[in-house]
UniProtKB/TrEMBL annotation:
Keywords: Cell inner membrane, Cell membrane, Membrane, Protein transport, Transmembrane, Transmembrane helix, Transport
Source species of the chain: Sphingomonas montanisoli
Protein name: Biopolymer transport protein ExbB
Residues annotated as transmembrane: 22-43, 128-155, 175-196
Main location: membrane
Subunit structure: The accessory proteins ExbB and ExbD seem to form a complex with TonB.
GO cellular component term, pick one: plasma membrane
Described function: Involved in the TonB-dependent energy-dependent transport of various receptor-bound substrates. Protects ExbD from proteolytic degradation and functionally stabilizes TonB.
Annotated GO biological process: protein import
This protein's record includes keyword Transport: yes
């Protein structure tokens, strides 16, 4: 067995990687990459979701208070999810007048808005498959490192002819570190995946509600419009 440096931890992560060789170091690098990828996706998707949730608040107030659909379109942020719905709805309205076969405007607009909403929801779901993959496979990757580490430890112990508890506990404990690392990588990925899926559902419900209101507004020539509750003014301090 390799002799640890004086004053160092003989059973730490560094010792486990040093004794595990290239296989343990490769597995550890894979787990680090998986963890970094999952955290990156969680933060970027959280930022993207929060941006659309903030756009929903503006769409419920500023857009529906506009005197016309074109004015409301101009007040929405460019390249925003709600601006995309309005743009696609107006484009479908213009395309309907160019159709040679008679198609009901209600169905044409409904299909166009549904496609636009589906594209937004699909974009929100990008990257979540990586979180699901990391959450389901990282424990097994760590377990693989543990199995290989235990095998190498037992081979060294057998070659040295030592079977005492101090000779077994150290190498086996070092091998179990890889399983612990795999679980540390998997748990945040699973929790983040479930949380982001729930927030995507909220975003999809808000987009569906806006799409329904927009559809009713367009097929009724502005006669059907959702009621916007204005916020109460702040009390004046005396």
């Amino acid at each position: 067995m390799a002799t640890p440096p004086a004053g160092g931890n003989p059973y730490g992560l560094g010792a486990a990687l040093e004794q595990g060789g290239i296989i343990a170091q490769s597995i550890f690098a894979i787990l680090v990459i998986m963890s970094a990828a999952s955290w990156y996706i969680m933060f970027t998707k959280l930022f993207e979701q929060q941006k659309i949730l903030n756009q929903a608040k503006k769409a419920r107030t500023v857009f529906w208070q506009a005197p016309s659909l074109r004015d409301g379109q101009a007040k929405l942020e460019a390249n925003s999810a709600y601006r995309q719905l309005v743009d696609d709805g107006l484009l479908a309205q213009e395309q309907h007048t160019k159709l040679t076969d008679p198609v009901d405007q209600h169905e044409w607009l409904l299909g166009s808005l549904a496609r636009s909403q589906g594209a937004i929801n699909s974009k929100l779901g990008n990257g979540l498959a990586v979180l699901a993959t990391v959450g389901s496979t990282s424990p097994f990757v760590g377990l693989l490192g543990t199995v290989i580490g235990i095998y190498r430890a037992l081979v060294k112990i057998g070659a040295a002819g030592q079977a005492s508890i101090d000779a077994v506990a150290g190498p086996v404990g070092e091998a179990l570190i890889m399983t612990a690392i795999g679980l540390v990588v998997a748990v945040p990925a699973v929790l983040g995946y479930n949380w982001l899926i729930r927030r995507n559902k909220v975003v999809a419900e808000q987009l569906a509600a806006f799409s329904t209101d927009l559809h009713g507004y367009m097929v009724s020539a502005g006669a059907v419009k959702p009621v916007v509750v204005k916020a109460a003014p702040a009390p004046v301090k005396k």
